[in-house]
Design goal:
- With 274 residues, this protein is mostly beta strands.
- It has one domain (2-136, 162-201, 252-272): Porin, CATH 2.40.160.20.
- It has helices at residues 2-18, 86-89, 213-220, 222-228, 231-234, and strands at residues 23-35, 49-59, 64-78, 94-109, 122-135, 138-141, 144-147, 169-182, 187-198, 255-267.
- It has an eight-stranded antiparallel beta barrel. A two-stranded antiparallel sheet has the order 6-7.
- It is elongated.
- It starts with a helix and ends in a 7-residue tail after the last strand.
- The relative contact order is 0.20.
Length: 274
């Protein structure tokens, strides 16, 4: 994480030094949410969490801009709290993870938005780009939180399993829309919502089938088996070893979202923007 933060800081200040005349530096504050195996139908109200970040933007002209950003949020989900069927709720899985995202994107302003008040002072815009992110799903049992990835809750890396442990860094495709307001020649404010298409199904640590719980308990401990298969907490008469039965849906990767308010200051002599 220290290396990631260093890259962000370097990117911001490099862009400021080179492109200061048409640049902005700002902050983001809002919410994060996720869509995956524990919220299969929509974004659950119970899954909203606060998020924040910082960004630098370079305006090529009144319509095209490039932005680099670093956002931090919380993604979470729970079968128990989810708006799903009673049968799905009985799976009784849950997770929570901090997510750290470093990304770059291009923005298209629908109006000729310039950093001076004698031009359009507001414009809707759309954006798309690429980002890298880090996540570490955790779950709570008996009042204690555990990192789930090392526990191989779906048998990753266990004897007889063909599933490899998943990586905790991955790539996402940010895309979304927003609206910008030019307050004066010094500052701007905006609203933004962005979706993230990912290439992993393990943000929530849920994807495929249950492992052999006896092997899992032998290699990683009884608490690993308990965190993998939590149905008995909901239904004490459930199967004792559900090996090979569905735990998640591997056909759809997870998505996550950021939305909120942006505030930025114009750097350099933006009034010369042509």
């Amino acid at each position: 994480m220290k290396q990631l933060i260093s890259i962000v800081i370097f990117s911001f200040f490099t862009s400021i030094n080179i492109y200061s005349q048409h640049s902005e530096f700002g902050f983001f504050a809002g919410f994060s949410n996720y869509h995956g195996d524990l919220t299969p139908k929509n974004m659950e109200v119970s899954s909203y969490a606060p998020s924040f970040g910082a960004f630098g933007r370079y305006n090529f002209n009144g319509h095209i801009a490039a932005k680099v950003h670093f956002y931090k949020g919380i993604l979470q989900g729970s079968d128990y709290k989810s708006q799903i069927t009673k049968g799905e709720r009985a799976r009784n899985l849950s997770f929570k993870t901090d997510i750290y995202e470093l990304g770059a994107q291009l923005e298209y302003n629908f109006l000729d938005f310039k950093l001076k008040i004698n031009h359009h002072i507001t414009t809707p815009y759309i954006f798309a780009g690429v980002a890298g992110f880090y996540y570490n799903p955790q779950a709570e049992i008996n009042g204690q939180w555990f990192d789930l990835q090392p526990l191989a809750t779906e048998g990753q890396g266990l004897e007889g399993s063909n599933i490899e442990p998943y990586q905790q860094t991955s790539i996402a495709i940010p895309m979304g829309f927003g609206i910008k307001f030019n307050i004066n020649h010094l500052a701007n404010i905006g609203l933004e919502f962005g979706m993230r298409k990912t290439f992993t199904d393990y943000i929530d640590d849920v994807s495929t089938t249950y492992p052999d719980l006896n092997i899992l308990a032998k290699e990683h401990g009884d608490f690993a088996a308990a965190l993998s298969y939590r149905v008995p907490e909901y239904n004490p008469s459930a199967l004792s070893n559900p090996k090979g039965t569905n735990r998640g849906d591997p056909t759809n990767n997870d998505w996550y979202f950021f939305g909120g308010v942006t505030i930025s200051v114009n750097i350099g002599n933006a009034s010369e923007f042509k």
